[in-house]
Amino acid sequence: MKYVLVTGGVVSGLGKGVTASSIGLVLKACGLRVTSIKIDPYLNMDAGTMSPFEHGEVFVLDDSGEVDLDLGNYERFLDITLTRENNITAGKIYQSVLEKERRGDYLGKTVQVVPHISDAIKNHIESVATIPMDGQEGPADVCVIELGGTVGDIESMPFIEALRQLSFSVGPDNFCLIHVSLIPVLGVVGEQKTKPTQLSVRELRALGLTPHLLACRSAQPILDNTKEKLSQFCHVPVCNILNIHDVPNIWHIPLLLTNQNAHHSILKQLNLVRIATAPDLRDWTNMAATYDNLTNSVKIAMVGKYVGLTDSYLSVVKALLHACVACSLKPSIDWIAATDLEDESSKLKPEAHAAAWETLRKASCVLVPGGFGDRGVKGMILAAKYARENKVPYLGICLGMQISVIEFAGSVLGWEKANSTEFDDGTLYPVVIFMPEGSKTHMGSTMRLGSRRTVFQTADCITKRMYHNSEYVDERHRHRYEVNSEFIETFEEAGLKFVGKDETGKRMEILELPSHPFYVGVQFHPEFKSRPRRPSPVFLGFILAATGQLDLYLEKQINGS
């Protein structure tokens, strides 16, 4: 197994995840099979209980793993299906070691960070790296490992030590270290400063790891004399100093790396030059160029709880991008804080309230994504009502589907007190209820998670046709509340149809309003399986409806054209 380790220095948020994904894509384009591992040094067992404001979205995998959002980048770039084991956290490692200690596996020895924690990290990496993630037989050729955080963080020290030991045990021909760092420009001087990177590399070398390549982040392309200075003080050849400057969209990053012969430097270090082929990125190049040349856009109102940090909805944003590009459009997302739409906001923040409603009315479509807790729920209900009454295409995901049920119950059925038991435990009309198998005392991994099957109940619905008339679809879930099946008959008599259910027929998965051009709610998260060249059918239908192209698209599908 060949390993490519991506570390970060100077500051966090440099784009290590995109860099690691791009490196994996370039190596895959060279004919190699690639897998990925993300190391998060925090003590949480997984990302499942972390606030979106704290850590961005929680990405959900087929096997029900709740993982770091960077694994979403890996899946989208490499078109592979990862498992929860591909996300290593300090919590997982320490728990496994402590469980062994309790069982007496260490035979009375003093359990220490070195060698016990470091060995557990190495063993986990080596075992996961051999698991094929691309559907083929046998292990991959290269495993790209991203070490979260910044070199020098206290919590990452055991991982640095384990990776140092791994590099020594596998040998220099099987290990390549790429260090991502920042080249800032001081406003007053206007000079590209290399000192932060020098110090970051010095710290990395002091910990026993020497970078083979530098990936330098900057706003503008770095100058030749900057590269020469970095080479001199960081002991990295000039040809191995890569510049990842700001680009119009992240699809350019693999192309940027290829243009600087990053693949050749990596293949040379890993002794794979004779095995690999020249990188074939024609399709990726066309995709990036297509996006750059798009001139028309579609306005999408995103009404959510966590709009202050767009990474909270990263996969939704990417799914919208994939769908828009497939329709030759650029997404123009207008972020609306759900609380700003609420009546109370008109008194407390009248300007924000007026601006939010103006933005909503100008949008071509409305999307209400997932979330937890009651903050902003009233605003989401108002957004769903506006979309339903004004025939504006609406897509509700997870909580967004439940919101559309609550709104319909209150506005159409006249059940003014209808609500979810998540927000009102004593509601007279509990149209959304807590799932019986869930836990109200433990939050981690107690939801309905992972890939679950949805069976279509009728052939005459938009979502089934968007899924190419499949009898069922497997999508990823993450929820602990569901639509109350006791009210389904009443809803359907009033016109709200539940066209997709689980295999038991008791759980509502997809709803549609046939009298509306596109009013769809899904209990699952279709964004997690969307890919650049294979947009999610739900998102594609949403964008087609927003631009008046849905009927023509479905008609062509019937005619087989």
Automatic annotation (TrEMBL):
Domain CTP synthase N-terminal: 2-272
Pathway(s) the chain acts in: Pyrimidine metabolism; CTP biosynthesis via de novo pathway; CTP from UDP: step 2/2
Keywords: ATP-binding, Glutamine amidotransferase, Ligase, Nucleotide-binding, Pyrimidine biosynthesis
Domain named Glutamine amidotransferase: residues: 309-543
Source domain of life: Eukaryota
Presence of keyword Manganese: no
One Pfam family of this chain: GATase
A GO MF term: CTP synthase activity
EC class (word): ligase
Catalytic activity: UTP + L-glutamine + ATP + H2O = CTP + L-glutamate + ADP + phosphate + 2 H(+)
EC nos: 6.3.4.2
Entry's family note: Belongs to the CTP synthase family.
Designated name of the protein: CTP synthase
Organism: Cucurbita maxima (Pumpkin)
Organism classification: Eukaryota, Viridiplantae, Streptophyta, Embryophyta, Tracheophyta
